[in-house]
Amino acid sequence: MDDIRFEDVSLTFPNGTRALSGVSLTVRRGEFVSLVGPSGCGKSTLLRLAAGFERPTSGAVRTGGEALGYVFQDATLLPWRTVLRNVELPGQLSGAGPAERRERAMDAIRRVGLDGFEKHRPAQLSGGMRMRVSIARALTLQPKLFLFDEPFGALDEMTRERLNEEVGALFVSDPFAGLFVTHSVPESVFMSTRVVVLSGRPGRIVADIEVPFGYPRPPELRYSPEFAAVAARVSEALRSVEHEQGAESEHENPGTADDEEAAA
Ligand code: ADP
Fold first, then answer.
1. How far is the CA of 250 from the centre of ligand 1 (A)?
2. Fold annotation for 4-66+144-263
3. What is the pTM for the complete model shown?
């Protein structure tokens, strides 16, 4: 069964911004698909469609209705709550009993390597640790479809690479269908079974690149010629759409871009 399927999806917002055009994409459990493309090409919109927060103007978005995990660029933690109480939140909202939600939260905290930090508050943690809390909170829902909206973009490179490896380990231990938005080509290749490259707005798929490495992936993989070859294909596809976008923007109505920014 497909965990998420976009069928010829187009989306135009009420203000006239055409975000996506004719996107068809299927992600099954055990697949980890990164989305890369120029800023504003509709990557986050695709995740919101997958989560059911938006509806397509035409086409269809089908999911099996499985448990959903959603991690954002900002860890979005409640600053007055401890790590444990933050991670317990989804259980609390879904009405799980105290013992069950505690057990699920403790298990998730262990899986992201934060045992011992249960009583800390977000302000006492580094950016990478806050992101681990955010991932742990999503893990308590045992997601079968896991959406990541550029979660590591604000972290330093070392932390980001470590988190890439950790999310890879989570994926191996309990495979989900992953959709991961990133601006980093190496990150997209390191994480994924496939990298999907979108054109400038309205986003359409211009390349769907298979990543032929098994998991777990050792950190040294990033320095291998095979890795560089896949990253080069992704970069090349990205460069072609950025070039195209540059050419298009010369003909754009200058009022439109401003309106869209104001609405964003
Ligand atoms: P990306 O994640 O690729 O940077 P987004 O999916 O966030 O892009 O946005 C795609 C385009 O749609 C952008 O131009 C953005 O300004 C616009 N947009 C996003 N949400 C809305 C909205 N609710 N109304 C109007 N325009 C929007």
1. 20
2. Rossmann fold (3.40.50)
3. 0.90
